[in-house]
């Protein structure tokens, strides 16, 4: 396989340059946060059974499995003198995701909501995957931890606002959070509309306010583009697992158990909290919708914690190591998930979310900082896409087994899905000890 190198001279960027190149993640996380906090609620409202939720959520990991490595492969081989290498994909994803965010809350049947989830997740992935490679492209190795931490900050900030939107719209602006059977509340609808606007505007800020380094050999890039086909590109995208560097293989195991836990959290928190703490499964009841809104607040809290912790992680890493920092953060996340089982006062869920937030801040920063140090610069986007297999594969596994486990062994008591997630994150923390991080300080 041939590859195109990028400019090797990478000066350190200023704070505001880091800000501009990461700002688009604010909008990307608006999309993900609205999806994570509200899609199970929409599915249940439209008639989905609790043990069906993981299969219905299968759209998210499958689209990631298909889209991310392909986008990574082609973004490595794209260059436009004005728009650069990664930014055309940022813009395309933003346009498609905005359309999906406007359409999702207008679903009138379960099958429509599932299709919208496929479209929304695929579109978000088109924007998101090149953002990871963007940091590797633009920053010297010693600044990459700070670069990914800045992304983590915007991930947290965007998710705080988006997750809390239904609660805020109901309690501050009087927009109804209940609807007749089969109807989606107005508070959820308006949250998705506002999210679409935020997604498009923030991603386009990065597109218009950032620059990219050109490939060292533009002629070589043109020749490769002339000789490639869609089929060869697809095949090449999925060959990368056999070519992964040692550190990437080790991090893959950590990622598997981390994201299995996160998928459990996103699918089942609404159901677990409304049934275990609010003691209802009636989606038309006031108690259910109050509980679902409170889940949004809880998600906002853990993302707010993540936004703050994002700036502390590099300090901890500089005094210990990146893998130790990640291990400690995952232990905190495990304790946060496990503690939910023992809670009956909804306010105490906010304490559990502190641990989850610490883990989330590290999950979206530290593995990528460690990985980028072990990758060849010319194939950064490609391998970042391949690495995301180990985000989506555990989600596919979770979609395949969580519903079965709950139905077969736990009488569809969904709080146990969060217990399983807590155990999975504990295993991920232990696996950090095997990572060989080529850290440059």
Please explain how this structure is put together.
- The chain is an all-alpha fold.
- α2 runs antiparallel to α6, α2 packs across α11 and α4 crosses α10.
- The two termini are 32 Å apart.
- The N terminus is likely disordered.
- The protein has 18 helices and no strands.
CATH top level label: Mainly Alpha
Question: What is the architecture at the second tier of CATH?
Answer: Up-down Bundle
Task: State the CATH superfamily name.
Answer: MFS general substrate transporter like domains
Proportion of strand residues = under 5%
What number is the mean pLDDT? 84
The low-confidence runs, each spanning 5 or more residues with pLDDT under 50, are 1-8
Helix proportion of residues, in percent? over 70%
Secondary structure tally, helices: 18
Largest sheet: none
Total individual domains: 1
Radius of gyration: 21 Å
From the spread of the alpha carbons, the general shape counts as globular
CATH topology: Growth Hormone, Chain: A
User: What's the SSE pattern?
Assistant: HHHHHHHHHHHHHHHHHH
Q: Return the structural class.
A: mainly alpha
Question: For the terminal residues, how far apart are their CA atoms?
Answer: 32 Å
Q: What is the count of β-strands?
A: 0
């Amino acid at each position: 396989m041939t590859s195109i190198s990028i400019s090797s001279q990478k000066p350190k960027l200023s704070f505001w340059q880091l800000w501009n190149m990461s700002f688009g993640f604010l909008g990307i996380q608006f999309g993900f946060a609205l999806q994570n906090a509200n899609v199970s609620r929409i599915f249940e409202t439209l008639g989905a059974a609790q043990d069906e939720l993981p299969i219905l959520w299968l759209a998210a990991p499958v689209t990631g499995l298909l889209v991310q490595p392909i986008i990574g492969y082609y973004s490595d081989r794209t260059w436009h003198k004005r728009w650069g290498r990664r930014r055309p994909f940022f813009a395309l994803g933003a346009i498609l995701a905005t359309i999906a965010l406007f359409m999702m809350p207008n679903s009138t049947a379960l099958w429509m909501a599932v299709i919208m989830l496929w479209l929304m997740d695929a579109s978000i992935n088109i924007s998101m995957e090149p953002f990871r490679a963007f940091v590797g492209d633009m920053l010297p190795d010693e600044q990459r931890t700070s670069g990914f931490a800045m992304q983590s900050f915007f991930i947290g900030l965007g998710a705080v606002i988006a997750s809390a939107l239904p609660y805020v719209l109901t309690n501050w602006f009087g927009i109804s959070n209940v609807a007749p059977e089969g109807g989606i509340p107005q508070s959820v609808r308006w949250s998705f509309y506002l999210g679409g606007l935020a997604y498009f505007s923030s991603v386009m800020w990065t597109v218009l306010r950032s620059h990219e380094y050109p490939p060292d050999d533009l002629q070589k890039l043109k020749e490769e583009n002339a000789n490639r086909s869609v089929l060869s590109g697809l095949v090449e995208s999925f060959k990368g697992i056999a070519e992964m560097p040692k550190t990437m293989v080790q991090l893959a195991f950590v990622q598997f158990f981390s994201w299995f836990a996160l998928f459990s959290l996103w699918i089942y928190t609404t159901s677990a909290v409304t049934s275990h703490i609010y003691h209802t499964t009636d989606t038309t009841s006031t108690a259910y919708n109050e509980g679902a809104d409170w889940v949004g607040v809880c998600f906002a809290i853990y993302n707010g914690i993540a936004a703050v912790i994002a700036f502390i992680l590099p300090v901890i890493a500089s005094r210990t190591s990146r893998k130790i920092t990640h291990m400690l953060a995952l232990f905190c996340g495990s304790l946060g998930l496990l503690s939910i089982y023992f809670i009956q006062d909804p306010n105490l869920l906010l304490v559990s979310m502190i641990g989850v937030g610490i883990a989330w801040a590290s999950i979206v920063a530290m593995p990528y900082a460690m990985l980028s140090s072990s990758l060849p610069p010319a194939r950064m986007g490609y391998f970042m896409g391949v690495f995301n297999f180990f985000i989506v594969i555990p989600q596919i596994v979770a979609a395949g087994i969580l519903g079965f486990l709950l139905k077969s062994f736990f009488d569809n008591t969904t709080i146990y899905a969060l217990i399983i997630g807590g155990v999975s994150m504990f295993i991920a923390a232990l696996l950090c000890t095997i990572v060989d991080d080529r850290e440059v300080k």
